[in-house]
Amino acid sequence: MASWIVSSGDSQNLPFVIVDKIAAQLYVYDANGTPRASTTVLLGLARGDHSVPGIGERRIADIRPAERTTPAGRFVGEPGKNIDSEDVIWIDYDAALSIHRVRAGPARERRLERLASPMPADKRISYGCVVVPVSFYEQVIAPTFARGKGIVYVLPETRSAEKVFSFVQRSPAQAGLQQPPTVRLSSDSFE
Prior knowledge:
Distance between the termini: 31 Å
Number of helices: 5
Strand content: 25-35%
Strand order of the largest sheet: 3-2-1-10-5-6-7-9
Low-confidence stretches: 170-178, 183-191
């Protein structure tokens, strides 16, 4: 995917992020396509590649579990603030979709434990946002978007990549994709 992004010029010389929903991983690249880092992420509870129309205008309490998807696609991400004045990277402001730091949340959701789990199935808990470890957000995400915009590619899980991204034509193995290093964080990093 990164090779296609760079060779097609699709990232418009901006840094970019690839979110692999199936593996529950996020990969960060600089504007030249050089891998910077990767991490595990929390994603929307429900499988699916579309946002429910008007979801960003609804109260959290009114969003049903089946509507808690992380939509696939190409998004122009940019720094901003959420309703609680926390720094986030907006993926789709109208859908209230962002990359943000993990929050403890309700105890029953065990977000910190899920983020630390090696199992991708354990990562499905958010309302659709892409949730990263606190230290990863501060050390990698925030600096990557410090100059403004970047491109966020969220890979599909129920549709083919070819249907979501017009420039995808061959597998990452065929393209010789180099993946960024996984950032290993201690358990105290999951604040």
